[in-house]
Amino acid sequence: MCGRFTFDIPPELLVGIFGLAEAPVTTPRFNIAPTQIVPVIRQYADGQNHLDHLRWGLIPSWAQDVSIGSKMINARSETVTEKPAFKRAVRYRRCVVPSSGFYEWLTEGKVKTPWYIRLKDGSPMVFAGLWETWKSPEGDVESFTILTTAANGLVEPLHGRMPVMLSGDGLLTWLDRNTTNPAGLVHLFKPYPVDLMEMWPVSSMVNNVRNDSAELVVSLRGDPTLEIGRDMASRRGKHYGID
After folding, report:
1. Domain boundaries, the chain
2. pLDDT band at residue 221, thresholds of 50, 70 and 90?
């Protein structure tokens, strides 16, 4: 599953990857947790991609209250076309969730150690997501979920699931509003290549959602401090063909 992730992506890189009309205003985040408001990318009816801020944890339109959202932070890609909460969203309400990386925990006896997982070249990860609108007396609530698939060989020792990650034509296909047949999306639900990813153990400070700083993603192995600065924009874009 994916229950915690980070977002530290320069606005100009978001523009380059997703073809946004203008650079969005964003804030670096290093400990995003369920029910929080998160940047996601959606394609509007005019065919233009937009960055919006949605609540993490999908609330179906038929839900009685928002509490169900905390149980729907992830959706299994293998059954997403069958579940009532997701089967229409996978046709008509798809989104992607840009991320710098995500956390999983290694359990050894009674000890759980958090690990940080990212792409080797530092480029953004792009998670496949679904979104929904829930109407309340106070106004509409837009929320999303992250699709998961079987873990690859890197992540599997930590957890049996990992986010569905998109790139290239797969990213374009997922965002394309003209694609409404789920059968044309199934090929995207495969584990991401192991050789493009890396991970390392990090501080247990990430266990507390109130902690949110670049210190959370620094390796405990004694490696040089991970460079998180905005000056990494050019290097991060190489994975998506952006210089």
Report:
1. 5-236
2. confident
**In CATH, what is the architecture of 5-236?**
Alpha-Beta Complex (3.90)
- What is the per-residue pLDDT for 236? 53
Q: Is it the case that residue 7 has pLDDT exceeding 90?
A: yes
> Quick one: CA torsion of 181, 186, 189, 192, rounded to 10 degrees?
-110
Q: What global pTM score does this model have?
A: 0.92
Question: What are the residue numbers of the active site?
Answer: 2, 104
Give the three-state DSSP class for 194.
helix
| First-last CA distance in the chain | 32
pLDDT in tens, 32-64: 999 999 999 999 999 999 999 999 999 999 999
Report the alpha-carbon distance of residue 61 to residue 199 in Å, rounded.
37
Q: What angle do CA 204, 210, 216 make, to 5 degrees?
A: 40
* Secondary structure of residue 113 in the 3-state scheme: strand
